[in-house]
Every structure is written in structure tokens, then in C-alpha cells.
Amino acid sequence: EEQERLLQGQPDQPRNPKVLRIAIIGAPNAGKSTLCNQLLGRKVFPVSKKVHTTRCKARGVVTYEDTQLMTMITCAWLTPLHLSFRHKLDEAMLTDPWDSMKHADLVLVLVDVSDHWTRNSLSKEVLKCLSEFPQVPSVLVLNKVDLLKKKFILLELVNELTEGIVNGRKLEVRAALEQNSSSSAKAPLQITQASPPENRAPVSSPDQARGGSDLDSSGVKASESSLVTGAPQGPTHNGPRDLKDRKGWPCFQEIFMLAALHGEEVDTLKRYLLMQAKPGPWEFHSRVLTSQSPQEICNNIIREKILEYLPLEVPYGVIQVTEMWEEGQSGELLIVQSLLVPRKSHMMMLIGRGGKVISRIAQEAGQDLMNVFLCDIRLKLKVEVKS
After folding, report:
1. 300 and 274 inside one domain
2. Cα dihedral 148→151→156→161 (10° resolution)
3. Is there a single domain that holds both residue 21 and residue 143?
4. pLDDT tens digit sequence for 269-324
5. Are residues 161 and 305 in the same domain?
6. Labelling 140: which of 5, 77, 279, 383 has CA 20 to 30 A away?
7. Which is nearest to 130 in space by CA: 170, 74, 195, 214?
């Protein structure tokens, strides 16, 4: 009731409010929901290794002093049509990325640098989205850098994903790193910008924001290998015809490198986002963390656990029906939800031998809900074959 009242009521406006609408785009499993949860400081979006975990069209809200950040996660990132049917994605979710970009003041492009199959180029869907909205400033975020043993790979990725241009300046490799086994432990990366534009935070890597120049957070100092920005280059906004052979985007304003799962360097990105906010009225009350209803949060968290514990395509056919949602005598939240599956074999997998799977799902989901709602949760899950 409190959440609904805050969402439906007028926001509490400070004297000089500032806002920034942020669209977070990227390939499936790049870490969009994880990053959003870290920015919020609480888990309100589901996280799973399976694709299309986040399906709701919801926004996260970060309020700090007089500034409000609104993050918009692209739920089903421009999924090919045959996959949209397989994962039962509706039309609203397939068009969501475009709607997010239309209303965004800034776009974060997330790349999973630990995925050696996809990290060397931006997907055609991402490139098409950037080219369709060239007026929206974009920032490249390299995620999961903690999983890279060979740090010099980041040097190559930055050059490829930006086409050698960042913030209108050409990147130049001053000295190449030796790509051998001896440099694979914690080879550092240094990115320096010559005379950054006025009134902008000169942040090209997280460590520069801290006043340092090395990438590795363990304290390894930067070597002579670095990227330096040369003469300013006029960014060219390219149309769809130019995307066929393109791998990167030459119009990124900044580059951030972080490990969202562990919260490493997320605060650096958050400070940057707060600095980019422009004067404007708040859309949400300062106590709101997400535009989702409590029931939507509950459904998403339970669905996250189902995705984790059920194999292949099985979880995508589960239908969730909330049968009870009420407050107990001691202030605890009582939730009863039925999980409807299409086949008896799916029901047996979801229940597990001796009920172990469904019990684990209920236990973990209940703990997450307790952390979100900050109250005791009594969650009961029932599994049925839908008629």
C-alpha cells in the first residue's frame, strides 16, 4: 500500500531538482540488471544466467540529494522473431528498447568482456539502436573485467569497440603490450585523455576517476602501454547502411570498466551519472526505488530462481498466479503463489526429488524478498499442471 501510494502521489520536489533518464542496453547476460541493482543499492531486478530474465518494463530510481537518476533496462533486447516465440515474449517487450531510447538522456552500452565470442564487437541490434538515436549521448561500459586474466585484452577491446575514437578524439596506441604468457597475470591498462572538454568529468577509466591511472584495482601500477587521445575528430553519425561491416561505435563520450556483480567501480560510474543530470522535475518520490509494484518484484524474484534451477526452455513455460498476498498478525507478509506448468514432467522437475527443488526456490526467493521489503516473509509455492 505504501509503494502504491508513493507511485500514485506527487513526487516530493527539492528546490532545484535535477534528473537523468538512463537507458541500459546490451546483449543478454551482459549484466544490465546486476548493474542497475548495484546503482540502486538493493536487489529489485531479477538476475540469472539464462537469457530474458528481465521481462518487465520497469525503471529503477536513484535519488541523491537534489538529483534523481532513472534507469531503464531493455528487457528483451531486440530479440529475433523466432526466439521471441520460443521465450513467449510479447510485442511490448520487443519494442521496449526503442521506447527506452526515445526517452533517454544518456545510454549505457554494456559489454561482457569475459565472453570471448561476443566481446570484440557490438551486436548489430545495439549498433542499429545507436545509429537511430545519435542525438542521445552514449557511454561504453566494459563489465566483468575481474574475470579477465589478461588485462591487455581491454586495450584491444577499447580500440575495437570505439573504432579508435572516444569523445571526439582519436585514440593512439603509444606502446603495444607483449601478448605472451608472462604478461597474462595482471597486465594493466592505462587510458589518458589530453585536455578533456570543459565542464565534463575526464573519466575514461575508473581509476582515473580515483586520481590514479592504472586499471587493476589490486594496486598494480600502469605500464608504459597506454591509449592517448590525439587531435579532435568530428563524430560522424552513421545511418543503417554503414552498419554492415561495423564492429564499434565512434561516438562514445566516456569509457568505464567495472565488475557489477561485486560492485567494483560502480560508485565511480554513479558519480559520473549524477554529474550528467540536468535541471528538471522529479518523476518519482524520493523513497521510491522502482516503478514496479511489490507483486511484480515478487514475481520476478521467484521467476529468477525458477530460471536458475530448471533446465533449458522449461522455465519459460511456467505461469505464476498469486493466490494470497496479505499482512500477518505480527507484520509479516504472507504470500502464496501457484506455479502452473504445461506438462507433468515439468512439474516433477520443478518439485524435485523429495520436494528439494521447490523448497530451495521458496527459501532463496523468500530471503531475497525479505531484503527487498525489509520485513519477514512467509512464502509458499504450489506446483500444478495447467488445464
Report:
1. no
2. 50
3. yes
4. 999 999 999 999 999 999 999 988 889 999 999 999 998 888 767 777 889 999 99
5. no
6. 279
7. 74
Residue 325 lies in a domain: yes
Q: Are residues 270 and 353 in the same domain?
A: no
Do 113 and 87 have their domain in common?
A: yes
Please name the amino acid found at residue 64.
Y
Both 7 and 65 in one domain: the answer is yes
Whether residues 252 and 339 fall in one domain: no
Q: How confident is the model at residue 351 (pLDDT cuts 50, 70, 90)?
A: very high
Q: Give residue for cell 504445461.
A: 342
pTM: 0.78
pLDDT the model gives residue 171: 81
Amino acid at 328: G
Closest listed residue to residue 215, CA positions, set 261, 160, 268, 272: 268
Tens-place pLDDT, residues 221-257? 333 334 555 555 544 554 444 677 789 999 999 999 9
Give a yes or no: residue 166 inside a domain.
Answer: yes
Domain of 353, in residue numbers = 294-385
Give the residue-averaged pLDDT of 152-167. Answer: 91
Nearest to 232 by CA among 250, 213, 210: 250
